[in-house]
Amino acid sequence: MTAQEQADLAVAELRSTWAGEPDGVWTAPGRVNLIGEHVDYNGGRCLPMALTRVTAAAVRRRDDDRVRISSSDPDAEPFEGTLADLGPGEVSGWAGYAAGTLWALQQAGVDVPGLDVSVSSDVPLGAGLSSSASLEAAVALSAAELAGRNDAAELRHLLIQAAIRAENEVVGAGTGGMDQTVALLAEEGSALLIHTRDFRTEPVQLGLAEAGLELMVIDTRVKHTLADGQYAKRRADCDEAARQLGLEWLSDATPADVDRLSDPRLQARTRHVVTENQRVDEVVELVRAGRVAEIGPLLDGSHTSLRDDYEVSAVELDVVVEAARAAGALGARMTGGGFGGSAIALIRAADAEAVGAAVVAACRERELTLPGILTVTSGPAARRLS
Ligand code: GLA
Questions:
Q1: Per the confidence metrics, is the pTM higher than 0.85?
Q2: Which atom of ligand 1 is nearest to the CA of 39?
Q3: Measured from the CB, is residue 176 less than 6 Å from ligand 1?
Q4: Of 171, 223, 217, whose CA–CA distance to 335 is shortest?
Q5: pLDDT of 226 strictly over 80
Q6: Domains of the chain and any CATH numbers
Q7: d(CA 140, CA 99)
Q8: From CA 37, how far away is CA 190, in angstroms rounded?
């Protein structure tokens, strides 16, 4: 579906649920992370790219202080409240991402008006492709623009911080900021190198099509509930390791530091962070040298590290990664937070069908949920469509 078609669905939703015409429609993309996993909250480097799949928000400014939020997803209950009750503990469920973003914008000094918001999205939910950050980013940009803010680079950084705050404090989910940053700062046709210490970004052109390659996303359609709390546990491990090493950021650890830790679990977590940052740097170097076809082993190394040292993979992810490689993928890894969600595979365009079929067959043989397969290209950041 195109962004415009998604926008049309959001407008139809605004008309049917809130009986209104929008003042504008904004979209923001989901993302897939090429490499640099679980390093964003450690002051490291990651290389995600925005998808062409988006969340669209049709938004109408109101004259009072009411806020109403609905979604074209029939499972998503509409939310109604006022500007004063959007904060922590006040909104539950999916609407918390949108309401929480409006709350965080107010906290940051943005004069958010009363709003009717209707959204529609084709970023798959729970697939590790940041449907939540796309919702936050679309709502954040719409509210800021309707509050009279100009869409400048500084504004986008403020919106990133508001979206992170909404997710951490209102929804109660951990996020290191990679997803919100790429949703708001991506450049179409490129991946985005994010230095997460200060959220400085650099576009990196992958040149996949020129090299006859494609990026395949394999959605396992599984989310293990044991994941609840595991993200926070990994962050706590990293904070503890950094504390023991006397570092502000664990990404500043050296390979020698790993041996200075006595707890084997903290050693393993730190080894992942150290080696993952190195792999990001090597990928960026290869890509910039026009050698994207050679990054496969680094993707493979990332998966092994996430599986064995960081312990955030899942059997479904391991099976699809193995199957993709066996069918000719140049490299494959889990992507996103882990414990289910999606994997990526770097493939030759000519192998797309064979790799997709092999992955599905491997899941069928293991009696796992059958995965969804998408080939993705890099889309633009959050923007106003109309
Ligand atoms: C989730 C979080 C991100 C990042 C990844 C792992 O997607 O939202 O901030 O930590 O997990 O790399």
A1: yes
A2: 12
A3: yes
A4: 217
A5: no
A6: 3-204 (3.30.230.10), 206-376 (3.30.70.890)
A7: 10
A8: 18
